[in-house]
Amino acid sequence: MDFAADRLLSVASSASEGASQKARELIARGVDVISLASGEPDFETPAHVVDAADKAMRAGQTRYTGPGGTPELKKAVIEKFKRDNGLNYDLSEVIASAGAKNMVFLALMATTNPGDEVIVPAPYWVSYTEMTKLVGGTPVVIKGPENNGFKIDADILEGAITPRSRWLLLNSPSNPNGTVYRREELEALATVVRRYPQLLVMTDEIYEHIVFDGLEVLSFAKVAPDLKDRTLTINGVSKSYAMTGWRIGFAGGAADLIKAMSKVQSQTVGAISSISQAGAVAALMGPQDFLKERSDIFQQRRDKVLARLAHVPHIRCIRPSGAFYLFVECKSLIGKKTAKGITLQNDTDVAEFLLDEALVVVVPGSAYGISPYFRMSIATSMERLDAACDRIIRAIEGLR
Ligand code: PLP
Questions:
Q1: Are 391 and 66 in contact (CB under 8 A)?
Q2: Topology of domain 47-285, per CATH?
Q3: How do residues 70-113 score in pLDDT, each as one tens digit?
């Protein structure tokens, strides 16, 4: 029996979650798989965060909180935006929800009419286009040159704008290729956005604290303060504080936009976990020095894997400036024959081949709107990354 509503017909399931699930199942069956599929840090949630949640739970903070977050969390979010991003929001301009992912959905659901267009630069995080379709909008995918980290510029953006354009989605540092927009690049985009008053800007800054080579991550609303009321700045505790399972994301934007999003939240998720909110307050208000230490560890891993894969034939790694993924171009693997006699036709085949013959799980680039590539997470120990590189190299050497 087909249970799915029509609106699901064009919506794909999350490829990265699918690949992670496949890896979990294989590992549970005792297969020695190395999963480089997942989008979560391998670090522990800091102990002071766990303690704060434990204390809140024991103090009876186990009831519904107001939708949009507790006053304590909203104040912590305001403080975070001021401290890290130079952005000033008041209480009516911030909202917390069950993850940055849910925040993107709330925003799209609250503002997008059927047929409205959402401009999504590729390669994109798997959920932007699918959530747009879920709410009845139309994703408009654009792409910049690979030699500039696929970043879009003013001309590319302007070429995609129509009277139906509702949102421009920006993600910096980006998933899957770790690109980071610089000040002048954001300023150039802002010049275009200013000319189209119906266009809003959603900036997903979830990887803000994982940035390499001394680069600075800038909020669009800080670079273009006159567009702050047309910008929704999204962030969360998942990646920076290793709190993916706590499901807390937050955003800052114009009071009316936040009100519309709260309305959707109040009729869907309702209040979010009171215990996780207490943990998120501790994360945002507690020590921040470990963020740089962890980012430096990701940079060391990036450098190690880039060095190991630099001379491997048929693949080319794109050097990420942030986040914890390597995006690997694999054009010249297409057409090669595996030991089992299968000809690799596309990057889904490449990902399957790496699973079959290298026991390494990666996510095909097609999930991110660009082929033929694959994404490898570096959010795993140096030893496991080394072992994964050995396996990938061996498997590729065995191709004909
Ligand atoms: N935004 C991007 C770009 C991501 O890569 C992810 C997770 O993979 C999320 C948002 C989800 O964040 P959260 O755990 O806060 O929902």
A1: no
A2: Aspartate Aminotransferase; domain 2 (3.40.640)
A3: 999 999 999 999 999 999 999 999 999 999 999 999 999 999 99
Calculate the alpha carbon distances from 231 to 114, 142, 224, 252, 255 in Å. 21, 20, 9, 8, 11
Residue by residue, DSSP assigns 267-285 as: HTT-SPPHHHHHHHHHHHH
The third-level CATH classification (topology) of the domain covering 6-44+290-397 is Aspartate Aminotransferase, domain 1 (3.90.1150)
- Over residues 220-272, the pLDDT tens digits come to 999 999 999 999 999 999 999 999 999 999 999 999 999 999 999 999 999 99
Please compute Rg for the chain using Cα positions. 21
Would the CB of 238 count as within 6 Å of ligand 1?
Answer: yes
Q: Is 176 in the pocket of ligand 1 (CB under 6 A)?
A: no
What is the four-CA torsion angle of 331, 210, 214, 146, rounded to 10 degrees?
20
Q: Which of 206, 232, 241, 243 to mutate to test the pocket of ligand 1 (most atoms within 8 A of CB)?
A: 206
* Ligand 1 center from residue 205 Cα (angstroms): 9
Which of 125, 169, 217, 269 most suits a substitution to test ligand 1, by most atoms within 8 Å of the C-beta?
A: 125
Pairing state of beta strands 249-252 and 231-236? Answer: antiparallel
